């Protein structure tokens, strides 16, 4: 876990820099409303990545059990079964979407009446199909997490961002492209291609013993994963509401231009979560291993370390808010866009509670005791949407961000309670299911 943490610090750091470089290029060369549409559309289509019926997270929890026993045949069987099942599922989703898409008023959905209808419809189709394919090949990430090799997942992300940035620079500065359809399509196609070739390389080398085979597909293996995976699937649906709905709500209640302000401020504040995310990512699968062995001392030490990293990140975030106006001017160009202190500060506040929630929630996910999480986050998600719309209509962008802060503060409270019960071995009833 520590080796991967060190490797991920360098990889994620460079990835963050690439993200920061691409944002001002898009801001200055694509119509701002169209840029907001692309960000909103990417957020909507990103939901597909959560709709794997729990196969990804189920595999992430189940695979370490076989690996710990050295049972590579069973491991190869469940990996093969997951890939075949997911391929069929993705094909069905694409077919259904292409049948429905022509009848959807995408300009109305994205609240952008000034955009070109044909271009936005084409962009929607390309982005959706690309995300579906990325969703299939992204199963390699669950396998890497199970092997406690998340650094490779970060490497795939870095390569995808690097190639996408090169493609963006060539389109904008060499061919003077300003079409959101072409730029968005190219950016969407690159990540699944990187995952495809990366998966082939890993299955021929480091992961050769579990490389998928059509011959080993069986429904029984899928069923064993879905028994736990369906719980994670419900959590993923809730996660869609809590993590992915912001851009859509802001676009509908405020404006597509406000989505740009939110996303740029979010990119900036998210820099402070880099180290935290690197630290917390390997904890899930490592906790699964430690919990099976009843190694609560290790879990306690890891929890303590994660808390310290989280608190340090929040302190750095406060300094980032104070320096935000200066940084935005240097990064995006002075006068290009006005991002208020309130927007940056509220994003920091809700991200702080989100990180605190993840400190405890990651441990809970590793134990597989997620029933309470399903119930409580489900209730909170139901509350969130009307609350965000109400506060958004009342206070604009700030209102939506206040709603975010409230829901993540509630998640932090209950997750800390359950996590402590599990570690102290006093969890009963709903807390131990």
Automatic annotation (TrEMBL):
**Which InterPro entries did the record assign?**
Poly_Biosynth_Transport, Polysacc_synth
The yes or no answer to whether the keyword Amino-acid biosynthesis is present is: no
**Can you say where in the cell this protein is located?**
Cell membrane
Which keywords does this chain's UniProt record carry? Cell membrane, Membrane, Transmembrane, Transmembrane helix
According to the record, the segments passing through the membrane are 9-29, 35-57, 78-103, 123-147, 154-174, 180-203, 224-245, 265-288, 309-333, 339-358, 370-391, 397-414
Is the Transmembrane helix keyword given for this protein? Answer: yes
One cellular component GO annotation, for this chain's record?
A: plasma membrane
For this UniProt entry, what is the primary localization, expressed as one broad class? Answer: membrane
Q: How does it sit in the membrane?
A: Multi-pass membrane protein
Q: What is this protein called?
A: MATE family efflux transporter
């Amino acid at each position: 876990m520590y080796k991967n943490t060190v490797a991920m610090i360098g990889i994620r750091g460079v990835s963050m820099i690439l993200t920061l470089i691409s944002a001002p290029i898009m801001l200055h060369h694509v119509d701002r409303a169209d840029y907001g549409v692309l960000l909103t559309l990417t957020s909507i289509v990103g939901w597909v990545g959560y709709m794997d019926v729990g196969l990804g997270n189920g595999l992430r929890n189940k695979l370490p059990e076989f690996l710990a026993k050295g049972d590579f045949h069973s491991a190869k069987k469940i990996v093969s079964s997951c890939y075949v099942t997911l391929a069929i599922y993705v094909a069905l989703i694409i077919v259904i979407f292409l049948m429905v898409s022509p009848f959807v008023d995408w300009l109305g959905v994205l609240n952008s009446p000034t955009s070109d209808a044909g271009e936005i419809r084409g962009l929607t189709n390309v982005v959706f199909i690309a995300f579906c394919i990325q969703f299939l090949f992204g199963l390699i990430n669950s396998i890497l997490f199970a092997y406690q090799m998340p650094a490779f997942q970060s490497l795939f992300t870095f390569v995808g961002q690097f190639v996408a940035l090169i493609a963006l620079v060539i389109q904008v500065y060499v061919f003077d492209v300003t079409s959101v359809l072409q730029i968005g399509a190219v950016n969407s196609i690159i990540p699944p291609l990187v995952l495809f070739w990366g998966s082939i390389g890993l299955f021929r080398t480091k992961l050769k013993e579990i490389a998928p085979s059509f011959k080993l597909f069986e429904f029984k293996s899928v069923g064993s994963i879905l028994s736990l995976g369906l719980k994670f699937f419900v959590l993923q649906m809730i996660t869609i509401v809590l993590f992915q709905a912001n851009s859509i709500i802001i676009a509908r209640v405020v404006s597509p231009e406000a989505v740009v302000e939110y996303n740029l401020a979010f990119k900036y504040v998210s820099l402070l979560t880099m180290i935290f995310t690197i630290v917390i990512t390997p904890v899930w699968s490592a906790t699964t291993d430690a919990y099976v062995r009843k190694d609560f001392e290790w879990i306690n030490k890891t929890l303590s370390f994660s808390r310290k990293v989280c608190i340090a990140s929040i302190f750095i975030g406060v300094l980032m808010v104070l320096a935000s106006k200066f940084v935005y001017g240097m990064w995006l160009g002075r006068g290009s866009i006005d991002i208020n202190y309130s927007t940056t500060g509220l994003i920091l506040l809700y991200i702080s509670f989100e990180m605190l929630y993840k400190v405890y929630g990651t441990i809970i996910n590793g134990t597989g005791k997620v029933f309470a999480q399903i119930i409580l986050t489900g209730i909170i998600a139901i509350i969130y949407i009307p609350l965000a719309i109400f506060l958004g209509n009342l206070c604009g962008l700030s209102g939506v961000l206040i709603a975010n802060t409230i829901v993540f503060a509630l998640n932090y409270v209950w997750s800390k309670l359950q996590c402590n019960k599990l570690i102290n071995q006093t969890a009963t009833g709903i807390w131990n299911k």
